[in-house]
Design brief:
homodimer; 340 residues; 5-stranded mixed sheet; globular
């Protein structure tokens, strides 16, 4: 019957407006009944510039997707990411691990936009290690759900790496996110480059990004491995001395720093994976293509040969979560009727 | 004969104007023939605000010690620290380790101030690990020389810790600095507090410094030890989650971060000391009293019971270096004559 309705309705009839609202960017997706993205748009109006103001969130969403909201009034809107944080549109409490898509979908909360349209917001996840240490994520839970939809073989048991400002290493068992760990690698890179003595020898960001030095990056990864006993506070100072002693060109220092930090994370992450007994389970690296490429190089350098690279899976995750929630099924009938 | 001249000359006759010129501060010392400090002054005109301008360095020194320079025209002036760096008054090339006070004193270089007075500047040290990694210090070599003068038993073989923006762990053999390692602990603390997400939950610097939480500091040291396998990029994120989950009060987060970073450094430093076979040799902790106090707590927490704490030993080091240089002995006769 579902299959039949696919053939009866016009192609590309929107069934969901997905919103991936992180700290530094806003992306919207128009998604059809098969979970395929019909259209997508993005802006730089991330939650961090909106300062927790509901009207600012409303205005940003209207600016980017006002026509979609008007054209498809029955279609659900589901948003994930920092939009649900303390300084977001509405704070949606974290769901405790282990949690699967149904558990996450059950805890979505809704706000209303200017036109009274309900926007459902996905909760983040928290996990406790039992020894007083908690960890949290917002947005990555949706990417994980999307990645598991794209790689069903990883649902049983797998390790997922989501590189970023705050990288996540997550363990999945039986379709549930069991536990995860955050590494603030991306942010460390940014603050060290912009605000520390290490950035002083580097060319300005604009000219520096134009040409990368893959060998300097790999040297950083290598030094992170071989010099792990030195401690990161010491290893980082090598960025300065290599520059001072002209053992590395100034243009290559940022790549070396990036390799050092990503290498440090990957090494700690692989130990974490080993301790969890996940070394023979699928390893998925999910996120921005260029950044995942660096993680792929670091993983290879650290002797890991088998892993899958996935582009950002937020849209797919939002679709899966909308399918797992009751709200979706309620409105699905209305949409089907209209699209016939 | 030296002893006799001590009794003949007026007490407290200046024999050296010592200058400890770091990145963020300038301190001057009037030192007598026994190496005792007669008077000292300080300003915040560190080398980093003077931007490598010779006239700015001249003006700063004149402002702080112009009367001394005028009153004691034959007394040598010896300066150490970032004043000798690339962006200092004059770049004085690093001396390679192993190096003792004589080797360092031999490589001082001089500039002339407005009145034509010669200012001798102490070189920094560099050490190479033979595997392409170099490390550097400027200013700490003088403090090490001063510490060895105060603790002669440490000259044979010892480990020195100099906490700071860029902490140093140094090995001494036969009066020579054999090798050393830099940890950018202090700077990491500052940039993470001021510019990262970790600082966002902390009270502003001014109100935050007023009351410290020693237990939060020790918890940080403890977590650095027990969670070392997690990697520092991950451990740091705990500062955020402990605050978010209200497991630690916002006022205590800076102390926890400090404990985490100092604990990480101390743990790596103690491994370094162990690898060098220095665990039964004297351990000296040299520098700012309050900061050394934190390192003392961290060392104790890490099971190290025996160490000596020394206040900043720059003045004593400058005196020792002036004695080790030929210049000092040349002018000594003139000073003695004048003070009779």
């Amino acid at each position: 019957m579902v299959t039949q309705s696919r053939f009866q309705r016009p192609p590309q009839c929107p069934h969901l407006i997905g919103v991936d609202w992180g700290s530094s960017s806003l992306r919207v997706f128009l998604i059809d009944a098969d979970g395929e993205v019909i259209a997508s748009r993005s802006s730089l109006e991330g939650s961090s510039v909106l300062q927790g103001s509901a009207s600012a969130f409303q205005a940003s969403l209207e600016n980017l997707a006002g026509d979609w909201l008007a054209d498809f009034p029955e279609v659900n809107v589901l948003a994930c990411g920092m939009v649900g944080s303390q300084h977001g549109w509405l704070e949606v409490p974290y769901v405790a691990c282990p949690a699967d898509s149904a558990a996450i979908a059950r805890k979505t909360m809704t706000v209303k936009d200017v036109g009274g349209r309900r926007i459902a917001i996905v909760p983040g996840l928290r996990c406790d290690d039992g020894a007083g240490r908690a960890d949290v994520m917002r947005g990555e839970e949706t990417q994980i759900i999307g990645a598991l939809a794209a790689h069903p073989e990883a649902r049983f048991r797998s390790c997922l790496v989501l590189p970023g400002t705050h990288s996540k290493w997550a363990q999945v068992d039986d379709g549930k996110v069991s536990r995860f760990a955050t590494h603030m690698t991306g942010e460390l890179f940014a603050v060290l480059r912009q605000h520390s003595v290490l950035g002083r020898l580097m060319p300005s960001t604009l000219s520096g990004e134009s040409s990368r030095d893959p060998l300097a990056f790999l040297r950083g990864v290598d030094d992170a491995q071989t010099g792990a006993h030195l401690g990161l506070t010491q290893q980082l100072f090598a960025v300065r001395t290599l520059g001072l002693m002209e053992q590395l060109s100034k243009a290559s220092l940022a790549d070396y720093l990036s390799g050092l930090l990503i290498g440090h994370e990957v090494q700690a992450g692989l130990s974490w994976r080993l301790c969890a007994g996940l070394e023979h389970s699928p390893l998925l690296v999910v996120g921005d293509t260029q950044l995942c490429g660096y993680y792929a190089q670091a993983l290879t350098q650290c002797g890991v040969g088998q892993f899958s690279l996935l582009d950002n899976t937020a849209a797919r995750g939002l679709w899966s979560l909308s399918q797992a929630s009751d709200l979706a099924s309620v409105s699905a009938f209305l949409i089907e009727e209209k699209c016939r």
